[in-house]
Design goal:
Order of helices and strands of chain B: EEEEEEEEEE
Oligomer: heterodimer
Strand order of the largest sheet of chain B: 2-10-9-4-5-6
Number of strands of chain A: 11
Largest interface: A-B, 24 and 23 residues
Strand content of chain A: over 45%
Structural class of chain B: mainly beta
Helix content of chain A: under 10%
Structural class of chain A: mainly beta
Radius of gyration of chain A: 13 Å
Shape of chain A: globular
Largest sheet of chain B: 6 strands, mixed
């Protein structure tokens, strides 16, 4: 199975900050990577697929980059509604696997 | 707007069985492969099963293979997960979500609101 490792596991930031979350795959997954946002008590919501394609309706302050084994999710100008947990997911092979999550907290 | 509504969760004893349902509306359910993903309390996301649009392809995670069975009824826009031999580590919120993209594997979007399964001694 492909292991997905996210870092950091927790990130403290302030409104207006630029934050970056990293996701590493245990083998190359080309660009078959998605990012999700999850708020407490809610289902995950997709932000980005194919490493850098923004899902319709997602604010442009979210961006993704990377290929192969290393990927990043960047949130420019962090907004109050962005405090949440973020997950990466590889979809190169079954079983689909997720990173362990990165919780973005208010500093 | 696409809606996915899971149901069937609840409290069940170790070794027991439960059947989850996911009903889709406002989207072409019969054209999409569907996934089940679960999330244990306070933990991350775990993919557990995929069924293709025609049910020709079914895949399970090792953690549930042989105990869980996924099926669908396209005429009723419904997806099912039959769970048996339930264990404590099956306690989780269970989500359904369609496969995004045209590849064999895809992203998951959108997600239902989830249904909680609690397995107790």
């Amino acid at each position: 199975d492909i292991q997905m490792t996210q870092s950091p596991s927790t990130l403290s930031a302030s409104v207006g900050d630029r934050v970056t979350i990293t996701c590493r795959a245990s083998q190359s997954i080309s660009r078959w990577l998605a990012w999700y946002q999850q708020k407490p008590g809610k289902a995950p919501k997709i932000l980005i697929y194919k490493a850098s394609t923004l899902q319709s309706g997602v604010p442009s302050r979210f961006s993704g980059s990377g290929s192969g084994t290393e990927f990043t999710l960047t949130i420019n100008t962090l907004q109050p509604e962005d405090f949440a947990t973020y997950y990466c997911q590889q979809y190169d092979f079954y079983p689909v696997t997720f990173g362990g999550g990165t919780k973005v907290e208010i500093k | 707007e696409v809606q996915l509504v899971e149901s069937g969760g609840g409290l069940v004893q170790f070794g027991g069985s439960l059947r989850l349902s996911c009903v889709a509306s406002e989207f072409a359910f019969s054209d999409f492969g569907m996934n089940w993903v679960r999330q244990a309390p306070g933990k991350g996301l775990e993919w557990i099963s995929y069924i293709s649009a025609s049910s020709a392809t079914i895949i399970y995670a090792d953690s549930v293979r042989g105990r869980f069975t996924v099926s669908r009824h396209n005429a009723e826009n419904s997806l099912y997960l039959e769970m048996s031999s339930l264990r404590g580590d099956d306690t989780a919120v269970y989500y359904c979500a369609p496969k995004g993209g045209s590849g064999y594997v895809g992203w998951l979007d959108p997600w239902g609101q989830g249904t909680l399964v609690t397995v107790s001694p």
